[in-house]
Specification:
The protein is mostly beta strands and 128 residues long. It has strands spanning 4-7, 10-13, 18-24, 33-39, 46-51, 57-59, 67-72, 77-82, 91-98, 117-118, 122-127. Strands 2, 4, 5, 6, 9, 10 and 11 form a 7-stranded mixed beta sheet that branches. A 4-stranded antiparallel beta sheet has the order 1-3-8-7, with no helix packed on it.
Length: 128
């Protein structure tokens, strides 16, 4: 399994920006999909953004144009740059790694089931 640990969450006013980081362990698999998810209280975990081995990216419609996923392979860090934040973006954010997600980097419903390795999460709160 891939070990992951998020950081960078916090409270920010609507319209502001935050950058989340996810340190992940070395892996020897040929192909791993890395992604960000979020879960608000009382709601299911939803996919936010994903990136494949070649650096191709995919986003949920709700964040397209506002969030950017990227990775630094040399440092084993996954990033999520979030801009123009809205109160609706308030949630616990998780990074995840999936070996068997063949549609990477497309963000589709019920995406969480395709990922087997998870971080502990970092809270993002956007106030108006």
């Amino acid at each position: 399994q891939v070990q992951l640990a998020e950081s960078g969450g916090g409270s920010v006013q609507a319209g502001g920006s935050l950058r989340l980081s996810c340190q992940f362990s070395e892996y020897t698999y040929d192909s791993v999909c890395l992604a960000w998810f979020r879960q608000a209280p009382g709601k299911e975990r939803e996919g936010v953004a994903a990136i494949d081995n070649d650096g191709e990216t995919g986003y949920a419609d709700s964040v397209k144009g506002r969030f950017t996923i990227s990775k630094d392979i040399a440092k084993n860090i996954l990033y999520l740059q979030m801009s123009r934040l809205e109160p609706e973006d308030t949630a616990m954010y998780f990074c995840a790694a999936g070996r068997d997600y063949l549609l990477c980097p497309y963000v589709v419903p019920n995406l969480a089931a395709a990922f087997g390795s998870w971080g502990q999460g970092t809270q993002v709160t956007v106030y108006s």
